[in-house]
Structure to design on (264 residues):
C-alpha cells in the first residue's frame, strides 16, 4: 500500500501536479484516495494565488480502474449513512476540480473507468496517449454512474452518453477525441510531454485573473438562453474585467511592446 494515495508537487513557476498514487489497485477510488484528493484540492483552493495551472495524472499503467478490490468487501456492508457520506466525498472531488480557478489538465496514459473517468470529464482539458482506453462499465456491475453523469454529458453530449453509459462499451483515445472527452491525442510519452509543456507555456502567458474569470463565466453562461438577462451579465463581466488591473496592464504592456508582469 502506498504511503500517500495522492501526491502533489508545485513547481517554482506555479504548476501543481496531482498524481493518483495507488497503482497496485489501479488507482481506483477508495475512501483514502478520495480523502487525499479532497485535501489536495482544498490546498489548491486555499493557496490559489501561488498556483497558475494544475495537472492531474496517475502513477502506473492505469489512470483509474473501476474498483479497489481491497475496498469492495467493506463497500458491501456499508450502512445507508456511510454510502451517502462516501458519495458526497466523491461528488465533492469532482465539483472541486470543476471549481478550481486555475486551468486543470488531465493526462491519461492508460485505461480510465469508474469515478476516475468522471474525474477526467470534470477537467478543463484532457490530453491522452494512444494507449488510453475508456469505459463506463458501472451498469454491468449493478451500479449507476450518477456522480460522473453531469460532467460526462457536458463533455460528450446526451446522445453519445446514452450510447456508452447504457451499453458499457469500451472506446479508445481516437473515439474519445471524436466525442469531445479528449482534446489532444498523442502517440507516446515524448510527444505527450512536449505537447503538455507547450500548453502549460500558453497558460502561463495568460493573466491569472482573466483565466479564472473566464472559467467562472463559462460555467455561468453554459446552457442559458441568449436573452437580455444574459447580455446584461456578460456586459457586467466585461466591465469588471476592463476596470481591473490586469486589463490595464495588458493594454499598457502591448502599447509599450513589453511583457506584462505575469509573463516575467
Amino acid at each position: 500500500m502506498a504511503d500517500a494515495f495522492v501526491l502533489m508537487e508545485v513547481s517554482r513557476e506555479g504548476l501543481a501536479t496531482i498524481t493518483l498514487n495507488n497503482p497496485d489497485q489501479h488507482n481506483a477510488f477508495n475512501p483514502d484516495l478520495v480523502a487525499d484528493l479532497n485535501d489536495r484540492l482544498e490546498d489548491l483552493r486555499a493557496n490559489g494565488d501561488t498556483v497558475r495551472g494544475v495537472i492531474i495524472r496517475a502513477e502506473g499503467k492505469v489512470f483509474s480502474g473501476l474498483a479497489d478490490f481491497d475496498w469492495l468487501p467493506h463497500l458491501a456492508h456499508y450502512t445507508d449513512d456511510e454510502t451517502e457520506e462516501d458519495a458526497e466525498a466523491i461528488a465533492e472531488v469532482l465539483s472541486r476540480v470543476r471549481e478550481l480557478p486555475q486551468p486543470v489538465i488531465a493526462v491519461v496514459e492508460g485505461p480510465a473507468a469508474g469515478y476516475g473517468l468522471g474525474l477526467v470529464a470534470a477537467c478543463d482539458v484532457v490530453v491522452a496517449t494512444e494507449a488510453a482506453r475508456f469505459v463506463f462499465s458501472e451498469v454491468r456491475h449493478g451500479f449507476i454512474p450518477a456522480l460522473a453523469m453531469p460532467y460526462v454529458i457536458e463533455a460528450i453530449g446526451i446522445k453519445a452518453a446514452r450510447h456508452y453509459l447504457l451499453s458499457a462499451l469500451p472506446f479508445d483515445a481516437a473515439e474519445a477525441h471524436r466525442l469531445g472527452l479528449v482534446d489532444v491525442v498523442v502517440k507516446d510519452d515524448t510527444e505527450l510531454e512536449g505537447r503538455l509543456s507547450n500548453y502549460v507555456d500558453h497558460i502561463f502567458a495568460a493573466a491569472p485573473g482573466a483565466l479564472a474569470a473566464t472559467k467562472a463565466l463559462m460555467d455561468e453562461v453554459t446552457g442559458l438562453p441568449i436573452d437580455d438577462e444574459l447580455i446584461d451579465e456578460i456586459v457586467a463581466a466585461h466591465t469588471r474585467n476592463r476596470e481591473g488591473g490586469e486589463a490595464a496592464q495588458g493594454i499598457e504592456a502591448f502599447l509599450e511592446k513589453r511583457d506584462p508582469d505575469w509573463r516575467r
Remarks:
- The first helix runs from residue 31 to 46.
